[in-house]
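Let's practice the habit of predicting before peeking. Look at the sequence and jot down your guess about where helices and strands might fall. Then scroll down.
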Amino acid sequence: MTKEEKAKYIDDLTAELTQAGVFYLADTSELSVEVINNLRRKCFQSGVTLKVVKNTLLYKAMERVEGIDYGQLSEVLAGPTSIMFAEVGNVPAKIIQEFRKKNAKPILKGAFVGEAIFIGDNQLETLANIKSKDELLGEIVGLLQSPAKNVISALKGQGGKIAGILKTLEERA
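Done guessing? Here is the structure:
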């Protein structure tokens, strides 16, 4: 790569990091071309972008992003690194978990999810269990609707009983 190509690559990576609220760093080395293509396909179907990056160029791009401290993520930039950009925090973790049922890799090096930093493959389960914004909103709406539904059903049920009792009393008279 020429200096101009490297500078352009770093600028592009910086722009992607700036826009991304979620990205994962993974080790996909030693995967065959067929297997890595299957992983790319799975990522594409799930709305995740997978790229192999050079560590030094990624490090420089991370340094250029203003207002965000990637902390310990720069420490995991050793050996072959792939970056997975996503819009939903748990999707890449779920892809990795599913993919590892048949393959030894990818191995999670680290992740950046909405200002939070996760380091190490042992964080994969935690990341997979993070709820998306839509899931959280659905739970909140469900919790808010639940008391109202209970009150309405109680009123309907009690109202039916009262009407039944009154009708029975009326028929007796």
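How did you do? The radius of gyration is 26 Å.
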